Structures are given as structure tokens and as C-alpha cells.
Predict the structure.
Amino acid sequence: MSSKQESMDVSVWRGDEQSGRFEHFEVPAQESQTILDVVSWIQQHQDPTLSYRYACRVGMCGSCAMMVNGVPRWTCRTHVKKVLDGNRLEVAPLRNLPVIKDLATDMDPFFDKWVAAEGMHHPSKTRDDPIETINPESADRQVANAGIECINCSVCYAACDTVSGNPDYLGPAALQRAWTVYNDAKDADKQLVLDAVSGRGGCHNCHSQGSCTMHCPNELNPLDAIAGLKRASAASFFKRRR
């Protein structure tokens, strides 16, 4: 951003999916300014009715994710100078999710797919049993660890063209979580996970374009996890047919 530049033309989505539109705001340019700073300035100084989400402001919660110039990003960690197109910015709600109002989306479909993918722990012991010791250096634990830093921001979900074309597709985050659970030595029902992710809308719908991995702010690799589920579910299928 030029030091002589005093303001930016910011287009912000207003309304819902059916009746929404972009509105333009002139926002002062400042040093070390993030996209979330821009959105907050508009809400505080120009339009108090603007709806959006944020919490931590430091890249820990993921709730501030939005589309910035057509790309899903954490707005709290995205500096204006890195994405400014001339003098313009465009901020919109995450795609592939229903829009509640303005920049706020309904996250229910995203989390419903976590449940559908069996992305939850299936206990193998009760609270009365001794705690099982797991070697953190074991191969399975290393694979499981690769995806545990997902914070459910749904950036990968918004980046996924397969989700856009197939609303039944479980999506990168849910499938990565399923792969984590599948590789957890303490999980009691790995076949349940494979059955959940190999049916309609499951891992085999992935086109392997890699947008999920490319845009993950935590530098995780959902594409690799999905490939693992494809291998494991295929092996399970042929094993059952013997």
C-alpha cells in the first residue's frame, strides 16, 4: 500500500443470499491494518447494522473467516497490504454456506457433516478402566496428529469446488477429522468411520484439486487425509468381498 494512499474502496456484501448485494464504503487506510480491522471500522463508524463474526482476533478461533477478493481467509490474520487490488477490496460471506445476514453464515451444515462423517470419538473403554498409554511416536499417532490442529474455521469448505457442485459432499474438514479418528488407537469403531465416509457424498467424491490444502490457514493437508480414507475404504471393500 502506498504511503500516499489515504482511503480504500471496500465492497461489502449486505443482506442474505436471495436479496443481498454489495455496498461500497470508503475506509481510511492505516498501517498494519487487517481485513477484520476494515470490517470493524465500517461497523463502528459507518454502518452499525453490519453483521459479522469474530472472537479472538489472533488466529485461534477461526470465527472471522470470510471471502476476501474471492478467496477464503481468516480476516484477523490477513493484512490489507497483501490482498489490496489497487485501491479496492471485496469482502463477502464464506461460500458454500447459507448466509444469515451480511458476512455471517450458518455453520450448521458444516458441523452436521462432521457428525455424518463419524468425526467423533468412539470410546473403547469406560471411565472405570485404566487410562491406555499411547506412544506419541507411533506411526498411527503421527498420522492422527497431522490433522488435530483444525479449528473448524471452514476455510477449506469454502474453498472446495466439489462442495459447490455437490451439496451432499462431506467436505475436507469433516473427512480430515474422520481420518484423524480412524487413526486414533483409542477409537473403537474404525469400520463405522469407513462406512460413513465411503458412501454417497463421501471421500471418493473428492476431485483431488487441492484447494483445501492450498488455503488452510493452519497449513494442514486435508487432501492427504482424504487420500488416506480412499485407500482405507477401498481396502476394506475388497477385504469384505473375499
The longest strand covers residues 7-14.
